Q: What sequence folds into this?
């Protein structure tokens, strides 16, 4: 394809640590002030308990940053001066919605309404979407770092393969793996694709052509990632995780095993069970927010692993995925198929901004993510306590964590639950949906219908509703 | 894969026509003032003729817009007030380089140097890159429309498939085809991919699986687009345009024909010669900048055509391509492989901005492109006039143009030339390179080495050098 020579050049370096910290402190203080201000305003609007607790919660979460007593509540006056420091995407919508660049209206979160999303409609009067894996909660982190914003000009970088972008992203990713301690990238080739899903399909296609068997059979242990069952590539690849058991799959050396570790939906740490020559590791969730990191992923032993920006920084819609590939020839073949003339420059620029921020703050995002998910799992533990008909089925292993240098108990991003004592014909998903919780049915993961997955990636106000809805359902049906 | 429900919402509407026009007039006046100012400054820096002519040329090109006498030359003082209206990406670098957002240094064009790219190194002392198809010249258009810039926040649109984006882009593309008059999109499905090249490879893969022959044979008439010869998809697809002649290819009904029309490298208008059931149209260059549009492409008769943003608005690195597909099932199969969880949101936002600008200005960009390429072909005609050893081989057909409602002679974006009387063993490409013109050899297009392709997408200052170099080469060798 039309490959262009790269020019020389570099884009702006991230600001140094000191400046960032100063901005963070100012930003968080302002945001807390605003949150409290908005909360105060909402008190008058009869949404007092809800909004107030959200405002306080947000400030608690930011407690990992050097704190100063929050100023007394004041009206939400947003001056031009402040708007230079604060990202108002969420605060302009009472932190219960989003006001996107250039838009005049708020897009409210589930269960919130009003011009500024200031009104909670009531947990029993609305539905929440906890079906997909959209990492909405990360917006709460990024609004605190408005210095990561940048101007997108239509006159810039028009040529194919603009200079310095890919190499800078690659450098950032290698450093990110080192910071997280989750993979050794030395001697590994990095292949970029628009998300890890397309990389997965093309890996399968390449492997297919090397096995000379049509279609290529792909297998994963149950419960497997629901996406695999719809993975097909023009009849070249067939997922047989549902129809073949472990013994059958193990008997055919040509079957490729997909190992998702930590696993989706349950967070289980896996190493593969078929011991076949063709194994692909899906490492989307191997980050400190979700699990302990006891040792870096052994890329020499497993020279084909897939990673995605979506689950590290939350930028799912940017579609930035990468593979760590030991074999140079395979890496080249993959890159010739994925982004043959380079991946989109704009999403690479976003990825560079996000990753360099994580690096320059020594992983502040990961600490924030851990605190957030730990808090959420604490509340899930409370709501399931002494409940006999509904059970949490995430194994939630504990292990020594190199990142924090102490034992960490897994905090997976999905709640994988089982409904016991279900009425005939009813699935766990049906039960959850009847209480207004959109979820993913166990059958999509190769499991009985008594299982269901709920996303814990929802924004904080929506998570509060989720907890309330589970509480109500347990009280009424168990 | 993880498909998410779309939320409701819309992003900002483009500004109305009136406001845009006002800004355009102000912007162009300011830019001409700056260009002239910079030219004046450069006079003192011994680069007088060159820079001055560029400044004037730029203002001439903008003559399609209501003009006012340009103010007298003045020093290049750029106040904060002006910087709000003018995009300084190029003007900050003497219009002979680019200063990207956040960067402190200029990236100079070929043959220009200095902190502000103010110095021309001399046509005989430098090389220019006219090999690839990077549409650099479009930057000269977009700097005139700073109102198309937008802020990219890391806190926005984190979820998969953000609401309203794909549908808005699709709507823009249908209107763009209508404005250009180059395709009927009624009853056609639009499939998005990251560029048209990946769409081409996946179409081939899908077609392959329907023919049940391995590998799928793909053929195109010579001269064919150089990218096709490297098109391969894990041994599933094989390009046979080089090794099979028309008769052999026609005899095998399973051979897929790629029809590039207007053709790359020469701009020829093609309709396909094999008359096989499987034909894919590559319509990258079917826009008013390059050719007359006598009638919209008949999508009912040819229900599989590929298009790309790169050659309409110049945003090659954004990787936005689309296919117009008649068959819904094929369209769905393609979309399940290309961007299975949506294409990158950032590049879609850029595409929306660019396309809605073209629509709201009634195709100003296309008029600008025609003027630009017409001027360039005029200069090429002059330099080749009465030259016996070098010939232009673009057919440059004339036809009635619905767009301008008069006859238009094609202005293709590549110069396809032949070198006659070459010394033994030497190729036309060798000859051009020996004079510092990087080009693409005829052999990549399935043609003898006496042919070569030069890109006319280079920026204006580089095009001036190209003309100078050709003039020198002709004078010395012919």
A:
């Amino acid at each position: 394809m039309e490959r262009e020579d790269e020019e020389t050049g570099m884009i702006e370096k991230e600001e140094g640590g000191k400046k960032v910290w100063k901005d963070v402190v100012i930003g968080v203080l302002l945001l807390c002030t605003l949150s409290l201000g908005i909360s105060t305003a909402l008190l008058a609007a009869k949404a007092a308990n809800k909004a107030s607790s959200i405002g306080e919660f947000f400030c608690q979460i930011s407690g990992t940053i050097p704190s100063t007593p929050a100023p007394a509540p004041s009206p939400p006056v947003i001056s031009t001066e402040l708007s230079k420091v604060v990202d108002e995407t969420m605060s302009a919508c009472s932190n219960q919605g989003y006001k996107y660049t250039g838009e005049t209206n708020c897009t409210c979160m589930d269960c919130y309404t009003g011009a500024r999303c200031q009104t909670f409609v009531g947990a029993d009067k609305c539905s929440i979407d906890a079906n997909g894996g959209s990492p909405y909660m990360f917006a709460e982190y990024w609004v605190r770092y408005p210095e990561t914003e940048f101007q997108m000009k239509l006159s810039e970088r028009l040529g194919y393969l603009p200079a310095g972008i890919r190499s800078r992203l690659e450098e950032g990713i290698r450093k990110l793996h080192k910071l997280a301690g989750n993979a050794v990238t030395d001697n590994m080739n990095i292949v970029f694709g628009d998300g890890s899903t397309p990389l997965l399909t093309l890996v399968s296609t390449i492997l297919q052509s090397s096995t000379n068997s049509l279609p290529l059979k792909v297998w994963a242990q149950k419960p497997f990632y629901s996406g695999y069952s719809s993975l097909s590539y023009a009849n070249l690849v067939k997922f047989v995780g549902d129809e073949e058991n472990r013994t059958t799959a193990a008997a055919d050396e040509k079957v490729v095993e997909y190992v998702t570790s930590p696993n989706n939906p349950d967070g289980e740490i896996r190493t593969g069970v078929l011991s076949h020559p063709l194994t692909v590791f899906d490492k989307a969730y191997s980050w400190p927010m979700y699990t302990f990191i006891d040792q870096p992923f052994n890329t020499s032993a497993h020279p084909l692993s897939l990673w995605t920006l979506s689950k590290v920084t939350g930028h799912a819609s940017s579609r930035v995925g990468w593979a760590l590939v030991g074999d140079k020839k395979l890496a080249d073949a993959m890159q010739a198929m994925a982004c043959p003339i380079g991946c989109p420059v704009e999403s690479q620029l976003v990825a560079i901004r996000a990753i360099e921020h994580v690096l320059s703050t020594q992983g502040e995002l990961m600490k924030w993510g851990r605190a957030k998910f730990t808090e959420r799992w604490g509340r899930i533990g409370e709501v399931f306590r002494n409940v006999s008909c509904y059970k949490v089925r995430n194994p939630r292993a504990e292990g020594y964590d190199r990142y924090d240098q102490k034992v960490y108990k897994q905090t997976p991003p999905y709640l994988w639950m089982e409904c016991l004592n279900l009425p005939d014909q009813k699935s766990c998903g049906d039960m959850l949906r009847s209480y207004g919780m959109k979820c993913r049915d166990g059958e999509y993961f190769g499991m009985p219908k008594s299982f269901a997955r709920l996303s814990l990636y929802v924004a904080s106000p929506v998570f509060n509703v989720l907890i309330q809805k589970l509480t109500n359902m347990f009280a009424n049906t168990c």
In short: Residues 1-83 of chain A have pLDDT under 50 and may be disordered. The CA atoms of residues 13 and 75 of chain A lie 37 Å apart.
